[in-house]
Amino acid sequence: MNLELVLFKACPFAQRVVIILDHLGVSCKRTFVNPSDRPDWLFDLSPMGQVPLIKINDTQVIFDSVAIGEFLNDLTHGTLLSADTLERGIQRALVEWAGTCQRAFGECIAAADEKAWHRAIDDLSEKLSWVEKLAHDSGPYLMGERFSLVDAAMAPLFMRLQALHHVVPCYDSEEIPKMARAMPVILTMQAVQGSIEGDFSRIFRMMVAGRGKGGYVDSRMG
Fold it and tell me: What is the pLDDT of residue 86?
């Protein structure tokens, strides 16, 4: 089976697919496109011209990072979701919710001023509280002893949260002990560290400049 992943370089939703591919050891060609100059053929393969999408044998396409993650999990005999039906359902819910958390994070770096920042960070904290609530009490990963699709979905956000936390405190580890426990374990994984090409601190600065130039976070970066 020939696989080709189409993605933007700094897209967190594409990043989670790269993490899954590398963690599972699945061979896949990667084709990067410019989000500011999307080729016409991208709109033929994906609604709204969104990424990531994965092409299978140049004939079939699966779009949406959640669907791609489950496809890759099924392709490799289902090691990244629990065998327990209820547990698997909770994990799927958290994978979807990770996208909501990621979008809330985007509002934090886009905040125009301190007042908007506090509103955005309060919203993100409220959304992250659901991940904390549903994560396992034991680790080392979010859902217990094994790396899961939940960890892959949250890893791009954890990477960005950590980068932001160095600029302006954005979470209290004591309030999110399960995530605080899992975050360093996930972020030191080879599949996660290699999921973004280039210097992530520089990439993060570009993200902030792109979403919130002149705003609260941008002003704190110096």
Answer: 97
Structure tokens at 19: 């993490």
Q: What is the pTM of this model?
A: 0.96
The answer to whether the CB of 141 falls within 8 A of the CB of 151 is yes
Specify the DSSP class assigned to residue 2: -
Tokens of 124: 């993100």
Handedness of CA 70, 94, 149, 123 (dihedral sign): positive
Q: What is the distance between the alpha carbons of residues 194 and 136, in angstroms, rounded to a whole number?
A: 26
Pick the CATH number of 3-75 from 3.40.30.10, 1.10.150.80, 3.40.50.300, 3.40.50.360: 3.40.30.10
Does the domain formed by 85-220 have CATH 1.20.1050.10?
A: yes
- 20, 65 Cβ separation under 8 angstroms: no
The residue behind tokens 């549903």 is: 134
Are the CB atoms for 211 and 176 separated by under 8 Å? no
Per-residue pLDDT averaged across 42-71, rounded? 95
Radius of gyration over every alpha carbon of the chain, rounded to an integer in angstroms = 17
Measure the CA–CA gap between 27 and 52, rounded to whole angstroms: 16
Q: Which of 106, 105, 113, 107 is nearest to 215 (CA)?
A: 113
Is the Cβ–Cβ distance between 18 and 7 less than 8 Å?
A: yes
How does pLDDT run across 95-121, given as a tens digit for each residue?
A: 999 999 999 999 999 999 999 999 999
Q: Is the pLDDT of residue 122 over 90?
A: yes
Residue 69 falls in which region: left (phi positive, over 0), alpha (psi -120 to 50) or beta: alpha
